[in-house]
Amino acid sequence: MTGLKTDYKVVNETEPQLEKVLDIYEERLKISRFLAGNRFTLADLFHLPNIEYLMNTTTKRLFENRPNVHRWVAKIMARPAWRKACDANAWYNEMEN
């Protein structure tokens, strides 16, 4: 995805769909800390790669405008294993040792 130009037509067509999903998540996250309950599960893990990407785009606002979704995103993105998975230096240091 690096170096590719954003297709804003696609963004404009798909953001309303994402908003509908995030509205459902917002309601769900009012009653639980994570999507499938009060424990981190594969349901949350599944979302991390796409969320990691979207947090660096203008679509980030859709997550930030929903307080429960915003809290959930911050919580799952802060997990030490995820942070390490996103740290290219950590991967290369592991390979050298």
UniProtKB/TrEMBL annotation:
<dbReference type="GO" id="GO:0004364">
    <property type="term" value="F:glutathione transferase activity"/>
</dbReference>
<dbReference type="GO" id="GO:0009407">
    <property type="term" value="P:toxin catabolic process"/>
</dbReference>
<dbReference type="InterPro" id="IPR010987">
    <property type="entry name" value="Glutathione-S-Trfase_C-like"/>
</dbReference>
<protein>
    <recommendedName>
        <fullName>glutathione transferase</fullName>
        <ecNumber>2.5.1.18</ecNumber>
    </recommendedName>
</protein>
<comment type="similarity">
    <text>Belongs to the GST superfamily. Phi family.</text>
</comment>
<feature type="domain" description="GST C-terminal">
    <location>
        <begin position="1"/>
        <end position="97"/>
    </location>
</feature>
<keyword id="KW-0808">Transferase</keyword>
<dbReference type="InterPro" id="IPR004046">
    <property type="entry name" value="GST_C"/>
</dbReference>
<dbReference type="InterPro" id="IPR036282">
    <property type="entry name" value="Glutathione-S-Trfase_C_sf"/>
</dbReference>
<keyword id="KW-0216">Detoxification</keyword>
<dbReference type="GO" id="GO:0005829">
    <property type="term" value="C:cytosol"/>
</dbReference>
<dbReference type="Pfam" id="PF00043">
    <property type="entry name" value="GST_C"/>
</dbReference>
<keyword id="KW-0963">Cytoplasm</keyword>
